[in-house]
User: Fold this.
Amino acid sequence: MTRIVLDAVGGDHAPAETIAGVALALQHGYLEPDEIILTGPEAMVRESARAAGLPDVVEICDAPDVLTAADSPTDALRRKRRNSIAVGMGLVKAGRAGGFVSAGSTGTVVAAATVGLRYLDGIRKACIAALIEGENNPFLVLDVGANPQPKPQHLAQFALMGSAYYGCQFGVESPRVGVLNIGSEDKKGSPLVLEARRLMQDMPIAFHGNVEGVEVFSGDCHVVVTDGFSGNVLLKTSEGVAEYLLRTTFQAMGEAGIAPEQIRAVQRAVMPRVDFSETGGALLLGVEGVVTICHGRSRAPAFANALRFARKALQGKVNEHIVKAAQELNLGAPDDEHDERGQPAI
Amino acid sequence: MTRIVLDAVGGDHAPAETIAGVALALQHGYLEPDEIILTGPEAMVRESARAAGLPDVVEICDAPDVLTAADSPTDALRRKRRNSIAVGMGLVKAGRAGGFVSAGSTGTVVAAATVGLRYLDGIRKACIAALIEGENNPFLVLDVGANPQPKPQHLAQFALMGSAYYGCQFGVESPRVGVLNIGSEDKKGSPLVLEARRLMQDMPIAFHGNVEGVEVFSGDCHVVVTDGFSGNVLLKTSEGVAEYLLRTTFQAMGEAGIAPEQIRAVQRAVMPRVDFSETGGALLLGVEGVVTICHGRSRAPAFANALRFARKALQGKVNEHIVKAAQELNLGAPDDEHDERGQPAI
Assistant:
């Protein structure tokens, strides 16, 4: 099943930019028109789709409840059940699509996915994996926000999922996995990190040890494991620093009398390295289905790339690789939190 | 007491660069020669001082035990008691100096300070406060590494200390204080942050609410409060991203055929914004004495600036401002961890 649902009304610039993103994805041949399902208030989405010249074969699935920034994930799932995110997740759950892409509230997407979709066999916590362009190679940071306070065994599962995901998507046999820490010494760090390190050392992954913030972008780790709070700080801070520094630098170039066409040449060389829209989205790993979370500020090219990205994850059978890796491993005692959901405890 | 102790043998480039830093500080008139005390193995430090032409009036206090990267803070304090950090802290404790500056192991400096020096009245946890150049104003991030897992009341104390410090050092009457979080919504974040927010809202500070990583560098907060793990990730990641992006950009400028003198002009405009040596150090707030922690990679200009920075904190009576702010406030129930040290519990 390679159909992908796109939340047509998620993000700051929806639905105009989501629909334009679909048009762009079709134009580039990332997907066929019958491989896309849009969710959102039907009349509004249909009108946008027509205005953008999308073929009629692009399916629209009505989701009349409109979420606002004031709706918490709980509100969204309890009071507005027929919202574009919940409806989209329902299509994945029902097997009508393999993936779901949204630039809506991250909290709501995570909540809808963990409530609506089963955890993968052997996995007891989902995490958001962001792919970032580094100096030497792209690297994966996980978790970047789903779990602000995970347990050590959750970090170990993130390591396993990150390694399996990176391996199958980039053809790297044993991706180097590091744990984000505040020093290079073995004994350094919080109790969470120390215990997670101990678990990771015994796992069938290429465990590299500690990685410090300063070496994440220029080091040689493919996968950087951390809790959702620190990972979010890493991701957002790097975004903020990059924007600020490049803005300052390009301004200084103008003041130094450098010609506009030379400035543009430098921008063309550097900007793709920091442009989140090049990847398009981050994957929620650990649930059945390929759930892709886009930046709220996404525009058409980002949505097109997110559709391509989700498609690649589906075709690469990321979840099968994760389940296989989890089977090779006993990840520890059952977790109270998820036994009650009737998940197989390994 | 405005004398300052410098750990002559701390840092990757000691003692050559520490001593050269003193020479630079004297040359710039940041301090007088009789206001500096150097710690380290006496003969070695004396030889370096002579070679650099330091006046004989610069005092050298013998610290024969040499620390290596393999020594943990515990090793340093138990087995090598006469090391340059412990001896320096002893001079502050004895009232022979008001401040201590070191580029040695951060963990050892923090341990030596919290064991050797009293907490300020009303404070029960020390934290490292890093001053960073932002787009609109310099801002303070604390804690950047002393406490990877603090309690909410500790974060509240960091907020208080950061506000008092920023206020007296930058002449800002009510510095805007934010708490680092992974979303802008009030309900977002870890239990630690949610409870710390609740405490900060009731404090006599200009509390701004959540700050996300993306807005730290370009936003309008003067003080950003967080745990030592996330703060360290913020600090180190921003350093790593800045180095990587500027390296990439300057290389792209060369490839775009921009003249070397124009590249240098841009570097002169941008580099000071990301150069840690401009400030020279981060303050360990919360203990009696001005303890300044320098980057391990510091060279002479960084040490000179760190001495100027410590001097400014001493002259600005930072600790008196913190104690006064703490007196205006009841920071909650006594903390088991420190009652046993006989500290006044407010």
Q: What stands out?
A: The two ends of chain A are 27 Å apart (CA to CA). Chain A has two domains: 1-126+286-319+326-346, 130-276.
